[in-house]
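Example 9 (inverse folding). The structure is encoded as follows.
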């Protein structure tokens, strides 16, 4: 395996995308497992793994020991995790430690309940304690290397490891280490090895992580976006004897070509299922994709291999309206002729004059006169048209008004009706209408959609759900009002139809008779429902991507005849004639409503006003109410009071250490309990109210107040 990886690293260093994909498939499982153990959250783990692989691909030529790529990947995970956290290490804290890494009895491994208890105890540790424990026991990082990575003293690392071991023994109820150690590999390390072998990588994360990392690698070809991780030597984790034996057998008796399989094949092993082949892809399209990548590997692009779906029309969508523009009538208006009184005009004199000159000369003179008059009229009309165009150009087509979103810590597209925001006041999520009106107070844990890409529910729209505690509820939108159902959300069926169009390979639903569509080269434009042909050229980029779990659409819907599009990494607004209404100078623009587009420019959120909204806009209306939403089954009045114990406590989104971390408590903090329940492992937890939000704390960390 090491020789195989060494060869792949060398190829990847020379730009082979095939080699990168194979390295990714060979190391994804242990890397994602480590990220998930550190974060205790799959979405956060996906983000950490994405950054770690991006860092690895961008700096792979700097790896001194190619055969240690898997270990190096774990170091990249550690660096990415460290950069995402604000650790609070007390460097003055020291402890007398014997330097032994073993603290659990061997009989722990023969008791499945004890293994689960130890695992839960590790997850329940505060981030600083958990980080040093996992990196030391799972990654095999020495105290010296941990100190270097975290920027603290070795004495502090020893102190935190000692405190973590004490917490794990106390909270798990496991027995302490035996007098004589029979195995050089610590029990906790072997527990991590067992968990890693049984772990899975979520299917939706596999493509997202690689796509992000490979995209950053392509960007780094122009300018390096990541610094190389710190060099950590001799950090290979101790291995169980059976693992060492298996590796020796693999070196001597295995066929290395078995490992040199394609990215898609290896992913199928990771997911334990074969990805469906898109039957609608033509041989020509596959050939074009293959030509873009090294070594003939087809790299999965976002949306490129997705099933093709056909959306039913929106209930309020309008058919294309084609108005005939009336033709202008030519009007020969010569001012000096209008001043002549033809009733008093002496025509006989004129007749005699013409006879004297001759008919031929008169005709020539008249032709010349008509030509001069025509030239004068043409020049006059050109000058008038030029003045009109200049006056029209001087009228601004849009106006950006900054501000109004100061309470929004985050702001993301969710669907065509509203965007989701995280409030600085409550630390939770709410919904905003696209003209800047607050629809749902930011008192909720998480919003998401039912599917990705062109999926939509049997209600003919993307299906939105909201998380309250650990339970999902349906979000409905009718007549401008958002409602959260009281019933627990149940998955709906997904509608999938083939597009059967030669004009594009992907498209969204129709809005106002138009839909975003993608050609075989991955470029986006807009097509008409009436003709099924493009009305806006395929020259734009996707706005959203699937690494953002809030996003479903690739591009924005047409609203009021306008649409926000992306070009060269910046967003702007165009009309259906592909004319620019707002220049390409914005980092993000949401769908429009009533001529108003929520947008971000130079790091500041505001609104772009178009049309009549430039005169009628009354301002953003975000009046945040910090009242917490009481979860189902939780009392509104306290049932008991407690004090946090010596090692502090973590507040989780539900009972169990696997759930999201929502707050941290320090030793001596007083909390009121509003409900009790057991976790899946049987340990008792209580619901507390911290910083305006409800969460769950293990009774092992509390004392009676």
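The amino acid assigned to each position is listed next.
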């Amino acid at each position: 395996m090491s020789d195989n990886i060494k060869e792949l690293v060398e190829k990847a260093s020379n730009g082979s995308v095939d080699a990168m994909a194979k390295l990714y498939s060979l190391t994804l499982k242990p890397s994602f497992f480590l990220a998930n153990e550190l974060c205790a959250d799959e979405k956060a783990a996906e983000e950490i793994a994405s950054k770690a692989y991006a860092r690895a691909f961008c700096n792979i030529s700097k790896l001194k020991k190619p055969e240690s790529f898997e270990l190096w990947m774990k170091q990249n995970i550690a660096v990415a995790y460290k950069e995402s956290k604000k650790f609070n290490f007390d460097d003055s804290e020291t402890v007398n430690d014997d330097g032994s890494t073993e603290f659990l009895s061997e009989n722990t491994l023969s008791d499945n309940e004890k293994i689960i208890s130890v695992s839960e105890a590790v997850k329940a540790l505060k981030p600083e304690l958990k980080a040093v424990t996992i990196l030391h026991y799972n990654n095999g990082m020495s105290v010296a290397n941990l100190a270097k990575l975290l920027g603290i003293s070795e004495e502090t690392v020893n102190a935190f490891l000692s405190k973590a071991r004490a917490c794990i023994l106390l909270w798990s109820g496991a027995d302490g280490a035996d007098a004589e150690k029979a195995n050089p590999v610590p029990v906790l390390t072997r527990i991590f090895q067992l968990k890693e072998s049984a772990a899975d990588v979520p299917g939706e994360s596999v493509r997202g992580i690689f796509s992000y990392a490979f995209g950053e690698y392509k960007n780094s070809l122009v300018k390096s976006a990541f610094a190389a991780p710190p060099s950590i030597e001799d950090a290979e984790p101790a291995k169980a004897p059976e693992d060492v034996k298996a590796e020796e057998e693999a070196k001597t008796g295995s066929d290395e070509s078995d490992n040199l399989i394609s990215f898609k094949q290896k992913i199928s092993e990771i997911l334990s299922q074969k990805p469906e082949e898109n039957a609608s892809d033509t041989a020509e399209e596959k050939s074009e994709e293959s030509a873009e990548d090294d070594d003939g590997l087809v790299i999965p692009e976002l949306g490129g291999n997705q099933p093709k779906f056909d959306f039913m029309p929106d209930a309020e969508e309008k058919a294309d309206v084609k108005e005939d523009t009336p033709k202008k009538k030519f009007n020969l208006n010569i001012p000096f002729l209008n001043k002549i009184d033809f009733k008093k005009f002496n025509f006989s004199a004129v007749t005699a004059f013409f006879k004297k000159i001759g008919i031929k000369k008169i005709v020539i003179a008249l032709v010349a006169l008509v030509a001069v008059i025509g030239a004068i009229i043409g020049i006059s009309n050109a000058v008038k048209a030029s003045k009109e165009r200049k006056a029209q150009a001087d009228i601004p087509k849009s106006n950006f008004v900054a501000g109004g979103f100061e309470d929004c810590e985050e702001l993301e597209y969710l669907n065509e009706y509203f965007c989701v925001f995280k409030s600085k006041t409550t630390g939770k999520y709410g919904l905003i209408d696209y003209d800047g009106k607050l629809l749902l107070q930011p008192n909720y844990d998480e919003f998401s959609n039912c599917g990705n890409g062109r999926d939509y529910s049997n209600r003919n729209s993307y299906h939105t759900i909201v998380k309250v505690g650990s339970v999902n509820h349906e979000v409905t939108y009718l007549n401008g009002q958002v409602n959260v159902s009281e019933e627990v959300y149940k998955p709906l069926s997904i509608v999938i139809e083939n597009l059967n169009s030669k004009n594009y390979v992907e498209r969204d639903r129709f809005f106002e008779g138009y839909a975003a569509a993608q050609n075989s080269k991955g470029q986006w434009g807009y097509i008409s429902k009436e003709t099924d042909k493009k009305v806006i050229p395929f020259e734009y980029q996707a706005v959203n991507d699937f690494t953002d779990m809030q996003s479903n659409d690739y591009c924005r819907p047409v609203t009021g005849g306008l649409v926000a599009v992306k070009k060269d990494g910046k967003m702007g607004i165009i009309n259906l004639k592909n004319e620019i209404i707002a220049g390409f100078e914005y980092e993000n623009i949401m769908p429009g409503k009533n001529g108003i587009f929520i947008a971000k420019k130079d790091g500041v959120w505001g609104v772009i006003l178009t049309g009549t909204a430039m005169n009628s806009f009354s301002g953003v209306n975000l009046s945040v109410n910090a009242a917490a939403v009481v979860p189902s089954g939780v009392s509104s009045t306290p049932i008991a009071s407690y004090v946090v114990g010596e090692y502090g406590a973590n507040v989780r989104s539900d009972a169990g250490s696997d759930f999201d971390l929502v707050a941290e408590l320090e030793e001596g903090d007083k909390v009121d309990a509003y409900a009790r329940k057991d976790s899946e492992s049987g340990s008792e937890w209580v619901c507390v109210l911290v910083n305006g939000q409800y969460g769950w704390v293990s009774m092992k960390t509390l004392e009676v107040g």
